Amino acid sequence: MKKQSICCIGAGYVGGPTMAVIALKCPDINVTVVDNNPSKIKAWNGDINKLPVYEPGLKEVVNKVRNKNLFFSNDVNKAIIDSEMIFLAVNTPTKSYGEGKGMAADLTFIENCSKQIAEVATSNKIVVEKSTLPVRTAEKIKDILSANSNNKVKFEVISNPEFLAEGTAIEDLFKSDRVLIGSDQTKSGRLAANSLIEIYKKWIPRDKILTTNVWSSELTKLASNAMLAQRISSINSLSALCEKTGADIEEVANAVGHDRRIGKEFLRSSVGFGGSCFQKDILNLVYLSRHYGLNEVAEFWHQVIRINDYQKSRFTKKIIDELNGTIKSKKIGVLGWAFKKDTNDSRESASIYVTNGLLDEGAKVYIYDPKVSSERIKRDLMNLWEIKNYSEKEIKSKLSNIKIVKDSEVCFQESSCIAILTEWDEFKRYNWKSLAKKMQKQHLIIDGRNILDPKKMKKLTNKFCSIGR
Ligand code: NAD
Ligand code: UGA
Question: Are 355 and 361 in contact (CB under 8 A)?
Fold first, then answer.
């Protein structure tokens, strides 16, 4: 019997790990991951220690299945022709132009893929929305597919949003809380959903595979991210109140989280959430709500983003205040660039905004991260400066004030401040006593992730601050 073939367009943080796990769990299926970025595919096929995505456990999975039943390729057309099921895991960033700029999801990549599928397919296909999309995108995809193909080929579009979190992607994929599949409530829609259920059933208990209509599935993804981010903004807003009143946010979060109805997860106060999705998906939800005339709903969710921005700027301001109101020419070490530990992803990381705020005040910023490359760090800052329309002269001067280092000790030498912006485990293991001695006599250590014990740190260092305490 011919082996079943599926493919995924988009070899990024979702496409790569998700397909690697499907290939591992379904040895009887050929899985091809395609991307139009040749260097990314080269990296997926190259040195196992330099895969484009860093995730604990990922290289072990890829190592087991690569070139057996998992393939990475640039040949998008061939993958479309050969596959019965095509996952779309391309990026859906916030629109940076035109109608909906800064709010709506940019669906250009989804549209391009849909058009390509329609033009190339010679047999019936199930198209699976894996990317996070606004409600009713499946309708648009269907329109594109039917407008651009010959009528002999039939397409079924189903929604299967991804809920993995970076840093724990492999664990999350192995033991998903739930898998969600949304399909049309027609015979062919249910058949398409069933083919996907057959894949997940290989390792996910059947009662964790939920089926809904397409629109519920699309909206559930935005709703889940919005509700997770909302918890962080809730606890972060309370952290500001703690700092004014003498309450301790860690004690408050712990006591609040003991209520089973509230739960302990996602109550970690921080310098602010980052990552490629929370902000973009909430903005998308706000845009959709406004589109349907639901302004109160839009305002409610928009506040989650506003509190997150407030938390990042509050943190930057605290550094300046604690250093006598001026940081001009002072050396500040930033520990951690990734938006969370155990990933090399830094999209929308709080560190970008905090660092920019410090540079605006004339500081010299030394940056260390164990996984994010120095090219990526520079690119993140340049992207922000381009959005802010900074002149070439300003950019040059800002670049001259940053140094990206491979040895974190360099950040400490003669510095006025060390700011922890990612909760990397290695920071907890540092010998803070001896490192603090390398800093200026009058210095500040500020923990934006509450990973260090304040009682111990206050004994070891000149001045120690954290969040909400
Ligand atoms: P990514 O940027 O890491 O990867 C997307 C890939 O798609 C890129 O490599 C890009 O080159 C490729 N691509 C774009 N257009 C293409 C085309 N026409 N043909 C071939 N390749 C094309 O993005 P990501 O983080 O993997 O996210 C993908 C989607 O999944 C987004 O909608 C995101 O919201 C959603 N999502 C992401 C996460 C996450 O943790 N990153 C989790 C759940 C859902
Ligand atoms: C998040 C969701 O958790 C995933 O379910 C979802 O699939 C994904 O977005 C997506 O759609 O992209 P991710 O952004 O990878 O996953 O990571 P999270 O663990 O959610 O962390 C997001 C940000 O919030 C990080 O900056 C993290 O440090 C911060 N955070 C998280 C807190 O500040 N406090 C917390 O209690 C939890």
Answer: no
